[in-house]
Amino acid sequence: xxxxxxxxxxxxxxxxxxxxxxxxxxxxxxxxxxxxxxxxxxxxxxxxxxxxxxxxxxxxxxxxxxxxxxxxxxxxxxxxxxxxxxxxxxxxxxxxxxxxxxxxxxxxxxxxxxxxxxxxxxxx
Length: 124
Ligand code: HEC
Prior knowledge:
By secondary structure, this protein is mainly alpha-helical.
């Protein structure tokens, strides 16, 4: 009986952890942790920095945990991600992955144009 009461008291707290909340938290983390510096404000990527929005949630989680673990076989490009993943908690990884996989551009935010694609060495 006591256990049931405790469970009932905790249920409203659990519902706070729905996806909507994770999305918002992920959005804040994305800017706070400086992910936009390489992957772009919209997660669109540029040259060797991959696009990370609209990829499956499981894949983003898997990749971030892979970089965080630092134990897998990585090339130099992948090693760039280690300092940005190593301090993320499981829930931060989840929140970021919810945000990125479900990413929807904020139509009211100021925009910049991407009139052409850059390739290879950036055209120099
Ligand atoms: C200094 C630049 C830099 C910053 C800052 C950075 N990344 Fe990355 N990220 C990279 C590079 C380079 C790769 C490609 C690594 C590879 O080849 O495996 C990458 C790969 C990824 C991938 C895997 C994409 C895929 O499809 O394989 C994810 C997910 C990711 N980053 C998320 C993040 C998040 C979340 C943050 C912020 C916490 C972040 N990155 C910050 C450079 C950066």
